[in-house]
Design goal:
There is one protein chain. The protein has about 110 residues and is mostly beta strands. About 0% of the residues lie in helices and about 45% in strands. The strands form two sheets. Strands 2-10-9-4-5-6 form a six-stranded mixed sheet, with no helix packed on it. The chain has a four-stranded antiparallel sheet with strand order 1-3-8-7, with no helix packed on it. β5 and β6 form a beta hairpin. It is globular.
């Protein structure tokens, strides 16, 4: 089934950066497109970015130019580097396999506030 555990969130000020980690166990991420999602208060969970097995990436418009998704198949890990954070980026961030959704991990809280 696989287990996904997110980490790296925290409280930061606007303009600062964070790197989120997604450690995957029980399955290999190698054959899968991997994705980061987020859920803002009162809203549904949404896709933020994904990365194909080829390494090509897709970003929501608000993430373009600020966020970078990356992966290391040998470490079974996916990252989301977030720069120039804004208060509207405040959310719980999750990772998963968009074409084969697994049990959601606990997520990692990102709070952007001055």
């Amino acid at each position: 089934q696989g287990q996904l555990v997110e980490s790296g969130g925290g409280l930061v000020q606007p303009g600062e950066s964070l790197r989120l980690d997604c450690a995957v166990s029980g399955i290999s991420i190698r054959p899968w497109t991997m994705a980061w999602y987020r859920q803002q208060p009162g809203k549904q969970r949404e896709l933020v970015a994904d990365i194909k097995t080829s390494g090509s990436a897709y970003y929501r418009d608000y993430a373009k130019g600020r966020f970078t998704i990356s992966r290391d198949n040998s470490k079974n890990t996916v990252w989301l580097e977030m720069n120039s954070l804004k208060p509207d980026d405040t959310a719980i961030y999750y990772c998963n396999i968009p074409n084969s959704i697994r049990t959601w991990g606990p997520g990692t809280q990102v709070t952007v506030s001055s």
